[in-house]
Amino acid sequence: MNILGIETSCDETAAAVVKDGREVLSSVIASQIEEHKIYGGVVPEIASRRHSEAISAVTEKALSDAGLTLDEIDAIAVTYAPGLIGALLVGVNFAKGLALSSGKPLVPVHHLRGHIASNYITNKELQPSFLCLVVSGGHSHIIEAEDYTRLKVIGRTRDDAAGEAFDKAARAMGIPYPGGVHLDEIAENGDDTAYKLPRPRVEGAPLDFSFSGLKTAVINLLHNAGQKNESIDIANLAASYRKAVVDLLTGNFLLAARELGTNRLVVAGGVSANRLLRRRLKELEDKGFEIYMPALDLCGDNAAMIAAQGYYELLAGNTAGMELNAHAQRDIS
Ligand code: KG4
Ligand code: ZN
After folding, report:
1. Which residues lie near ion ligand 2 (Cβ < 5 Å)?
2. Given its phi and psi angles, is residue 14 left (phi above 0), alpha (psi -120 to 50 degrees) or beta?
């Protein structure tokens, strides 16, 4: 079955065709990153406008790269939540138009379910059940995937998401946007023992995350050094900070694995591209864990992951009519 996927939840206009949830026939991404860079973050109004301008051409290219016409597509999958509401609406309305005019089923896909499905493309043998750490710019969740479409959040962030924590700390360190990616690169050449940073825990909720105290610790450290005219080694601070975030992520993830008695671990979302996180997870293979991660080009936002999850949603009968709306926030379950 060929599924056309459409993704416009943030600053990437993307369309892709995926066969049977696993084989990418085409994947087109128009990134707006350069335009948002000058503002130091995504400007929602600009994002929506650029999606509207790009969506037709991006979708046409996805079809032509796959060598298919709309007639040869079996269903249209679209990200309907969560994300920037104006950005989501562009994709949802475009997908509704395509579904209505072609008579094909319309399949709403939750963005984080899509991120998880990027693993089905990279790891052809992977099947639920598993435990998944979903770490993106807006979310940090530990999710129990009982099946392709039965997902339960068992741990979540109480404040910043992991990607947000990287981006905000990077900004405070004077690292250019997009901060998380650059901080990761700079940290590769730093000493991660140079600065002592806290590992905040959430009282009474051991699987939940809290990153805001860590971010504040970095901001205070920079502020104090500035007042005393002391210099800070940014590579060392980036490395120390990255280690603290990754310690928190892997600590809770392993605790959840022990609690649930599972050894099949999956990571997904933009932060799954983080070099240290990938190394630390990979090391767990020696301890008897099965570790799955998306290929680097599937970690960030793309539409192939939406088409992949769309396939499993369609099999489960999760289709929508013209009443489908976009939602800025919506639980994954
Ligand atoms: O999943 P994603 O592309 O978009 C959302 O759904 O939010 O995630 C974007 C987030 C950003 O916060 C970005 O800084 C972070 O992922 N990110 C990274 C790395 N690559 C992307 N964070 C740390 N290390 C990286 N290598
Ligand atoms: Zn995302």
Report:
1. 136, 301
2. beta
Residue 8 near ligand 1, beta carbon < 6 Å: no
pLDDT more than 90, % of the chain? 96
Closest ligand 1 atom to residue 180 Cα is 14
Q: Are the C-beta atoms of 309 and 281 separated by less than 8 Å?
A: no
- Residue 216: band (very low, low, confident or very high) from pLDDT cuts 50, 70, 90: very high
Tell me the pLDDT tens digit for each residue of 141-198: 999 999 999 999 999 999 999 999 999 999 999 998 889 999 999 999 999 999 999 9
Indicate the top mutation candidate among 139, 181, 211, 242 to test ligand 1's pocket, ranked by most ligand atoms within 8 A of CB.
Answer: 181
Phi, psi angle pair for 134, to nearest 5° = -105, 110
Which letter does DSSP use for residue 209 in this model?
A: B
Spatial separation of the C-alpha atoms in residues 176 and 280, rounded to whole Å: 26
Please tell me the predicted confidence (pLDDT) of residue 177: 85
Q: Which atom of ligand 1 is nearest to the CA of 277?
A: 24
Q: What pLDDT, on a 0 to 100 scale, did the predictor assign at position 178?
A: 85
Compute the distance between CA of residue 183 and CA of residue 190 in angstroms, rounded to an integer. 10
If one compares 33 and 240, the residue with the highest pLDDT of the two is 240
> Ligand 1 centre from 270 Cα, in Å?
3
pTM listed for this prediction: 0.97
Q: What are the φ and ψ backbone dihedral angles of 47, each rounded to 5 degrees?
A: -55, -50
Q: Give the total residue count for the chain.
A: 333
